[in-house]
Model the fold of this input.
Amino acid sequence: MTLWQCTYLHGFLSSGHSVKANWFEDKFTALSKDAHPLETRYELLRPTYPQLHPQLSIDFLRRFLDETLKQTEQACLIGSSLGGFYARFLAQEYQLPYILINPALDPVRLLSDFQGEYTNPNTGETLNVDMSYANDLKRLYIESGETAPGLLLLDRGDEVISYEETLTRFNTDENHPVRLFDGGDHAFQHLDQAWSDIEGFLHQHRKD
Done:
């Protein structure tokens, strides 16, 4: 049996126990229960990573992935909002397939309107979004040369990030398909409708 370990990266001021993380865990658990003993088993990993500063986030996630890749034949990344930004960057570094859900692909511009001190209600961590925070994020931008396969899921009704802006930053091609849904919001309201796309993407990029 092949083991798929997919790591879900939560968004800004969220955690690994978010609604979407729980949804993915339920879906992967159901898939594994239904699988034939010789088929693929799916497991969701959902770390709550530190957000005090982007470099701390990336350092933590690199260590996490280094350990994960010692234990599995296959891995993928799933990221929502700011977690999507990190997922895309790390996917290129580790050459892993990835899935983005309403990602913040231009977080420097996005957070420029939200500078100040914040406390993550899930962890109690307090962070300061300032120019130093933004400059560290800017070092993680991917402008071209994207080689890891990716799937982009967007709600047109996202009230935080314009889906048009996201599309201008995503390298759309046959290896990076986009699924665009009418309505919805930044939390993404079409997971159930997107499940067939997600399952198909994972099946397409599994190592037989």
